Amino acid sequence: MKAKRYFLAALAALFAAPAALAADLGGEGVVTHAGATVTVGPTQAIFFPAQLSFALWQPSPLWAEVPKPLGEGLPDGWKGLKVAFGEDRGRPQAFIQAPKGTDFYGTGEVVGTLRRNGWQITLWNTDNYGYGTYDSRRLYQSHPWVLGVRPDGSAFGVIADSTYRGTIDLGEDTIRFVFEGDVFPVLILEATSPQDALRQLAGLTGKMPMPPLWALGYQQSRWGYKDAKECLGVAKTMREKQIPCDVMWMDIDYMDGHRIFTFSPQGHPDPKGYMGELHKLGFKGVWMIDPAFKNEPEGKHPYFDEATERGFWVKRSDGKTDYVGRVWPGDCKFPDFLRADVRAWWAEINRRFVSENAIDGLWNDMNEPAVFGGFSHTMPIDNLHGGDAPGDFPRGPHARYHNIYGLNMIRATREGLLRAYPNRRPFVLTRANFLGGHRYGYTWTGDNLSTDSHMRLAVPMSLNLSLSGQAFNGPDLGGFGNRSNPKLMRQWAGFGAFFPFCRNHSAHSPQEPWLFGEETVAAFRVAIERRYALMPYLYTCFRNAAVEGETVMAPVFFADPADPALRREEQAFMVGADLIVVPAFAKNPALPKGDWKVAKLLDAPAEQGPDQAKLLLRPGAAIPVCKPAQHTGALDLANLTLVANLGPDGKATALLYEDAGEGYAFEKGDYRLTRFTVTLRDGKPAVSAETLSGNRPTAVKTVTVRLADAK
User: Fold this and answer.
1) E-assigned strands of 12-58?
2) What pLDDT score does 711 carry?
3) Torsion angle of C-alpha atoms 33, 36, 40, 42, degrees rounded to 10
4) Which of 32, 134, 144, 487 supports an S-S bond with 82, CB 3.0-4.6 Å?
5) Is the dihedral of CA 634, 638, 643, 648 positive or negative?
6) CA 148, CA 161: separation in Å to the nearest integer?
């Protein structure tokens, strides 16, 4: 009883002034944790508040599989963090004390610095055009996750399992989660390095599915393409200007009155025919589907009628009345994706949509869900979701399910694509998501602006998404809102070509490269050709993300986690483990020690143009590159070049992953992972190859070596 009283007093003081008492957390005689602790892995434990237990816990969908209890208490030899639970004005909270000198990262998609110490982030998916409201501290996705890196380079991760609206409040060495809902547990994982922490995160929340090769290509989009003729004209001009491109995107303009699953009879009378023309040119087509159906009389839209008849709409607080909110088509109703039967229905109508029109991928937008004029730009928090059938989420308020509405939409969308094309890898892009939702869809950073500041902040923004498990992400290259300009387009392309997701998208203001003059076309072409030349290496990085749970894009401190000078670097970034990208705008970037050399991907002086990023190659590393092509289906992967930076031992190694670029045969061994070793023999480069795994015959016929430039 004495210990309990001491704990309550200490806890009250702790949350009244956490900074002052941070040093005392875990000190002798201080009870830091009132509930059960359950070991779920050799370096992982879940901490429960006193009101909750493993048996009573209702896990959120962030988990790929619910962690299995291995025993009460902490793992053997645990030297990790401690947790205290309490309340803040009636809201449950958890407080974690980190070692002094810890740097915090992750926290998902928020504008700001790479290092998150001192930041408070709101976890509430919000349509936020231009990041202009709520101090940019809440955007389209929520990730209740913090990555901590200690001064010695070791790391830890913290997951708070709540889907309610909440905040992450990061001090200099403290973490506080507060949610406006039920009490919640906290999982802490201990890691030897930041990359190890992300591998463990992927083990818990799922690994990114391997995308089709074409999804790694450059992609062209605009909100404002008026019809199929204009879209085909853009695609043909891409080929005429010799700018590599794999995908044309269709925004809401293709719809009849912005009504989903319809086509404008004037602009897109023959969508399947349009897709056939795109395919002839070597393009894929991705089309937008929002969640909201126009509320209209019976007989106007068969899917709307079907959903009404089956009672699939989100309900008002009375549990009987369908909720109606305004979006692009006007008054709309919203499918309740928290129900299994609604998700199955959504998957089926998406299957029909893509298979009947030969569509390659889908884009889910406005799925926070965004509601015009609604409180906080969404639906009322007392709306009701879920049900009682198997697979349903328990019946509950929108306040509980808002942050996972988009996740469950893309979950069903992905299922629809799998039904339509069971032998293809689904491509779904989403604006709204939640921690773990990378299992179902890839993402971009929403409605940024065509400004120099938004160009620069794209790097730390995408990096922290990567450090939150969203490996396949990137910004709208060139900026979505406002009007771009030639210099901005050239510079953004110069480094944006190396983001995992590479798409030029704008709002009505056209920004196809040729609209900014021949100098911009030339620079843009070089930037995208560099991406395509790098495709063998980039595809291998995606394999490492899908199989190992690693990042594709990472901060430069991943090259040396123990070097404190690298912890705040947010201009330069890494692609994979071997390549650093230094944008043209970067001023005195902090770079890792060692003999990193310039990697040239093209046989063209223009690669070193003033707007192009500099690529630096790790000592002892080689990267496989190929000759650029107009789309990924035309790449010559038989004749590779290894760009090598020989290490102190006179060697450089490279990994190359090969598969069909599509489908699932790789899961049955139809792939090849090869390690190449470059050495000097009689002063000339020599190459040896070793198959590490897989039984697919290699496509590689010739390998040449290009040594990295010391300049």
Assistant:
1) 37-41, 44-47
2) 60
3) 50
4) 32
5) positive
6) 17
Structure-token match 């939640």, residue found: 434
Per the DSSP assignment, residues forming a β-bridge with 223 are 507
Instruction: Look at residues 600, 603, 615, 627 and name the one whose alpha carbon lies nearest to residue 708.
Output: 600
Catalytic residue from among 190, 368, 550, 607: 368
Complete edge-to-edge strand list for the sheet that includes strand 120-123? 83-88, 91-97, 174-179, 166-170, 120-123
Q: How many CB atoms lie within 10 A of CB 89?
A: 7
In angstroms, the CA 461 to CA 436 distance is 18
pLDDT of 34 reads 67
Q: Which of 103, 290, 365, 570 is catalytic?
A: 365
Evaluate the omega torsion of the peptide bond into residue 369 and state whether it is cis, within 30 degrees of 0: yes
- Which structure tokens are listed for 303? 């899917």
Residue 24 among the catalytic residues: no
Q: What is the pTM of this model?
A: 0.94
Neighbours of 650 (CB within 10 A): 11
Do the beta carbons of residue 178 and residue 93 sit within 8 Å?
A: yes
* CA–CA distance, 416 with 363 (Å, rounded to integer): 13
Q: Tell me, what amino acid is at 710?
A: A
Query: Could you read off the pLDDT of 65-76 as tens digits, one per residue?
Result: 999 999 999 999
Which residue in this structure is represented by tokens 């799922």?
206
The reported pLDDT for the residue numbered 33 is 57
Catalytic residue among 169, 190, 251, 447: 447
Long-range contacts from 559-567, C-beta under 8 angstroms, 24+ separation: 559/592, 559/618, 560/153, 560/592, 560/593, 561/149, 561/153, 561/154, 561/155, 561/193, 561/194, 562/151, 562/152, 562/153, 563/592, 563/593, 564/151, 565/590, 566/590, 566/591, 566/592, 567/103, 567/115, 567/149
Distance CA 617, CA 48 (A): 45
Structure token digits, residue 195: 């990359």
In the chain, which residues have pLDDT < 50?
1-32
3-state SS, residue 38:
strand
368 is catalytic: yes
Tokens of 371: 């509601």
| 3 state SS for 423-439 | CCCCCEEECCEECCHHH
Residue with tokens 């094309």: 421
Q: What is the pLDDT of residue 375?
A: 78
